[in-house]
Amino acid sequence: MDEKKVVYITGGSKGIGKGMARYLLEKGYKVAISSRNATEIEKAAADLGKIKADILAIRSDVRKQEDEQHAVKTIMDKWGRLDVLIANAGVGIFAPVEELSYEQWNKVIDTNVTGVFNSVKAALDAIKKSKGYIITIASLAGTNFSLKGTVYNASKFAVVGFTQALMLDLRQYDVKVTTIMPGSVTSNFNDHIPSAEDAWKLQPEDIGQIVYDLLKMNPRALPSKIEVRPAKPPVKN
Ligand SMILES: NC(=O)c1ccc[n+]([C@@H]2O[C@H](COP(=O)([O-])OP(=O)(O)OC[C@H]3O[C@@H](n4cnc5c(N)ncnc54)[C@H](OP(=O)(O)O)[C@@H]3O)[C@@H](O)[C@H]2O)c1
Fold first, then answer.
1. What are the backbone dihedrals phi and psi of residue 234, each rounded to the nearest 5 degrees, phi first?
2. pTM for the whole thing?
């Protein structure tokens, strides 16, 4: 790689975000990660910093426009460029609709949908300048609906629709846009504690590898929507 390219990953303190950060750092990218919790994001950066020093931790809540503007400014001040945005931060709440509160609805929509919009808006000028790449992490829940999934399904269907339309808006500027729709991935999603029982699932680094492959693809080719699932179902006892 000539000049090192710069990647910004929202929700990078754990799970898929941290796994993608690790993979891309190992491949020689400079990586900025953000999350709401300053202690957690600093801890993740200290851990990833053992691989390479090209890591930057930023505290940002994607629900707040000004946080995401500040995050991108911090990256530009430090590295002077931004090549890849990965809008990954997301939360899940699963409940029958009669039990779902307005607060829960707003939290999921504000994070998973408005949060992606806030990150994209903040990064847009820099990404257009670098003729870069925007990737959103949606979910198979963006095409398959499930019991108790109303708000999570609504949010991920929205991310898929938003990203596909964004792709049409931006490819005229040589900016590529892809949404990745993973099935089950081992992570801390919904306060899950990873264990040996997660071995059948995709691992966060698998999503990192997909991102890397997208970034390396011939400039004329654009896989705009990627569904990915574990190759084998869980073993039933
Ligand atoms: N795990 C799966 O099976 C799976 C499958 C398909 C799609 N996904 C999607 O993958 C993405 C990452 O999830 P994950 O599985 O890695 O979950 P995770 O382990 O819980 O990580 C979520 C990350 O998002 C951050 N975050 C949450 N709300 C935020 C906000 N308002 N602003 C900024 N950061 C925020 C969290 O940090 P803080 O709490 O410190 O903010 C954390 O770093 C999500 O969009 C999720 O919907 C997951």
1. -65, 150
2. 0.98
